[in-house]
Amino acid sequence: MTLPAETARARTGSGPRRMIARAALAALGIIAAGGLIWWLAASLDTGGADLWELLRGIPVWAWAALVALTAAQFLISAVKWTLVTRRLFPEDRAVPGIAAVTLYTAVGAVLGIFVTVYVGTVASRALAMRLLHRRGVGRNAAATVLEQGFDVAAMACFAVAAAAVLFLGIGWIWLVVLPPLFAMAGGALLLRSRHVVAWLRARLRGAGSARDADTMTTAVDRLLTARMVAVLLGASGLRFLVLALRVVVVVLAIGQTVPLMDVTLAFPLVQASQLASLTPGNIGIAEWTWVGLLMFQGGTLETAGAFALVLRLAGLAALGATTGLLAAILLVRRVQGAHGRNPAVAGA
């Protein structure tokens, strides 16, 4: 028989052990990411020395396009999160503006360099809502997970289509035709998930959690409508195309050292590799996935590896510039708003 005091000590001791285990996993992930990147750079004939030349050769228009596309990516995610939050919690009138949520999304992408890709956005938005807007962490994290679920669905549609074209040898036209068909089929299945929700509601009621069952059912009824599912899947598809355009910009900016059509086919599968969440920011995994897929299509280790590393470095630079720009815009708006609310300052 376990005594209450022993149970309390066990629970108290499990907390530090869990934190140590998570810290160890994070450290291993960082070491693995660094090792994979070093291995790839060292595998190039020049040892990666020409990467800086490629980066310095990127024209100004390409940097401007990368920043604009990165901002568009964050904006689309912010709009989706706002739609999901307002659908799930219509009684909550304190939803932040789009500009603020866009910045929180950008900060989440920065955090995603040090943790797994999807965790960074969840943590950033939840903490921002808690610290800056005094809103609960749980519901905001849930809204982010649901919003990102549609991103995963859209990515899967493109990845399956790309795999069919690349490995089965079907025509290129199917890369355009299949993703919308998969999205429509997935949306239909998602709408039919109400049956699963009804079963789960009955189980919760049977366990004495009638309130949780009613809350969950109401939230799902608000979110899983044909129009809402279509809007969210369409927005996630648009976000995926924005990400693809960023890669196209880099290919054109460095002089198409790799064929654009090969990159187009590889991109959805590279994006899908982040689902493994093996390293922080998918660093190393994405680069070697690029190398494998481009070499499968006839490329060389030198050109594929250099392209993958330049794409990573250009993406990090664009991410930093975009996040700084969004923060500056939001700060200016906050200062202007504070001046407008202060009669003494406004009349000066």
Task: Please describe what this structure looks like.
The chain is mainly alpha-helical. The protein has helices at residues 4-43, 51-56, 60-88, 98-111, 117-133, 137-168, 173-191, 194-206, 210-223, 226-253, 260-272, 285-296, 301-341, 343-346. It has one domain (49-336). It has 14 helices and no strands. The N and C termini lie far apart (74 Å). 32% of the residues are buried. Mean pLDDT is 81; it is low at 1-13.
The percent range for helix content is: over 70%
Report how far apart the termini are: 74 Å
Structural class by secondary-structure content: mainly alpha
| Number of helical regions | 14
Average residue-wise pLDDT: 81
Number of domains: 1
Shape: globular
Largest sheet: none
Q: How much beta, percentage-wise?
A: under 5%
Radius of gyration: 23 Å
Low-confidence stretches: 1-13
- The tally of strands reads 0
Order of helices and strands: HHHHHHHHHHHHHH
